[in-house]
Amino acid sequence: RIRYAIPEELGRGSLVGPLARDLGLSPADLPARKLRIVSGDEKKYFTLGEDNTNLRVNEVIDREGICGAVSPCVLSLEAVVENPFNIFRVSIAIQDINDNAPQFDKEFVAIEIIESTPPGARFPLGTVRDLDIGENSLQNYLLTPNPFFSLAVRESPDGTKQPELVLEKSLDRENQKSHHLILRAVDGGDPVRSGTAQIKITVTDANDNPPVFTKEIYKVRLLENLPDGTLAFQVKATDADEGTNAEITYSFSDITSSARKRFTLDSRTGDVMVRGPLDYEEGKYYEASVEGRDGGGMSAHVKIQIEILDVNDNTPTLSLLPILNPIPEDSVPTTVVAVISVRDRDSGENGEVSCDIDSDLPFRLEPSSENTYKLLITKALDRETVSDYNVTITAKDRGSPALWSRAALVLEGSDVNDNAPVFEEAAYSAYVAENNAAGAPVLTVRARDADAGANGRVSYWLAGGSAGAAPYVSVEARSGAVYAQRSFDYEQCREFAVAVRAQDGGAPARSSTATVRVFVLDRNDNAPRVLWPAAGAGAGAAPAAAPFEVVPRSAEAGYLVAKVVAVDADAGRNAWLSYELVQAPEPALFRVGLHSGEVRTARAVSERDAAKQRLVAVVKDHGQPALSATATLHVVLAESLQEALPELSERAAAADSPAELQFYLVLALALLSALFLLSVALAVLARV
């Protein structure tokens, strides 16, 4: 608790006290601690200076207007600092200055005194008000000297000083009908302030008995909110005289303006009626003096004191100040998120207020100081589960019946990057036919992040994979689309795997990885290749030189002549091979195995069969469309190698003749070209 004391009537901007220093805050701490005034009905009177360190006057303070006669006059407010959070109670005592002069309720006092009044009789001179307190309040009265009158000061039970005029000598109306005096009231301030009232005393004929009130002081307690016209109480006076001298009329002789607005006095019966609204919160106590005057001019005075009793007619009021909104979802329990100030203008139990919130929320209320609560986090928050909270604070007093009010506070959760991206599948599979175009889409990976904003924005990239897989594919950072970087070849790579990483935009970033396995599908893009005998380049290609096979003329059906050996680099049906003879001089003499490629005699060799046989076999795969290759086989029918040699020599010569012919053709073409060039050169020279 921090306490300051300042005089009233200080100008705007006047220093109250070095609040930051008194709270132990250094200038370097101020930006982080966020010192500010957060509650208190008196906040409008004070403010923090531009430097946010000193407490200063925000508007001129009139002690009498705020506290009246109450002493000490203390204004309270609360200051809040954060990191860590704390609340401090600040009390400012407002010191009185002598800024109010004593003021008579009536500046002109008329008194009628019967000439038979004996010396020693006293006559009230009205009430003096001085709004200041202590030494600055009313201290003394001064009366102009007069041989017939003196001044006496009577102190009432409540401590006020009432001036009374004392008759010192008997009056003689026939000698002097009236007297004029001046009464001066002075306070004890520096400089001294004073107020004056003129007193006129009229001397009347004798009236033996003055009125007498039934009580010396009327003390009345009334409930607030009584309706207009309600009888509050009655004053009563009696007079021992008879006739008109015993007829008493009542009137207020001294009453404040606020009391006059709320009460009326019946001059004949003495009934005091409620005139205006009685509100305990606006006025708790009223005081007045009633004069009872008989028909002969004699009077008596009595004081009335009216105390207003509180009724529970004010609902509590709530003032909400969010400290942390939005709330980071990683805030720890006991973090202060708001300060709630509650006020109830009623008093006693009617003004005692308790606050609560719904029990199913992750918050609780904790009393901080008088009429102030802190709203604390009780358990961990998860923005992805609940993004905001509607907190309803209920304030209820202890009156009967109790009054209550509610205020709603919407607290939003701010996202923290506490969730990593999650792929829709832990592993992805894609099937791509070989010979695809570079840049063709393979598949799209997708990851979800429960966070918001940048924390939930996912980007993708390759994070490794099987050996050599990196050059094959790429991933689009935003969409997660995976594209082929080049054409795939089933014969070189049948499958590969890459790791795709999804990472969010938080700080620090969170990520997860999924495996993408790509299977390359075979296409029929490889023709069969003949290993033996030498094969042509493909379907329709000219056959290469083929070896000779010697078959004895005594060979029976099924004799194995040779075996065509071929392979296909494709797989599956694209690599299934079949063999077929497409050219043979004696179609019925030889056959080839459909799947084995074995060339066998289909029947026994006869003497009529030609000695030389040229066989052409085609090898086909089962792709769509089918691809093929050819193989040529020369067969010589002879009983022995010596018998087959002439045929082999003739074949070799026949094989050499085309080569020689080709050589001579090339040589002739070269000579013709040379002659043409020489002719052109001679023509050019001749022209030159």
UniProtKB/TrEMBL annotation:
It is found in: Cell membrane. The chain crosses the membrane at residues 663-686. CDD domains: Cadherin_repeat. InterPro entries: Cadherin-like_dom, Cadherin-like_sf, Cadherin_CS, Cadherin_N, Protocadherin/Cadherin-CA. It is a single-pass type I membrane protein. SUPFAM superfamilies: Cadherin-like. Gene3D superfamilies: Cadherins. GO terms for cellular component: plasma membrane. GO terms for biological process: homophilic cell adhesion via plasma membrane adhesion molecules. Pfam families: Cadherin (PF00028), Cadherin_2 (PF08266). One of its GO terms (molecular function) is calcium ion binding. Keywords: Calcium, Cell adhesion, Cell membrane, Glycoprotein, Membrane, Repeat, Signal, Transmembrane, Transmembrane helix. Residues 6-104, 105-213, 214-318, 327-423, 424-530, 551-648 form the Cadherin domain. Potential calcium-dependent cell-adhesion protein. May be involved in the establishment and maintenance of specific neuronal connections in the brain. This is PCDGD protein. The lineage of its organism: Eukaryota, Metazoa, Chordata, Craniata, Vertebrata.
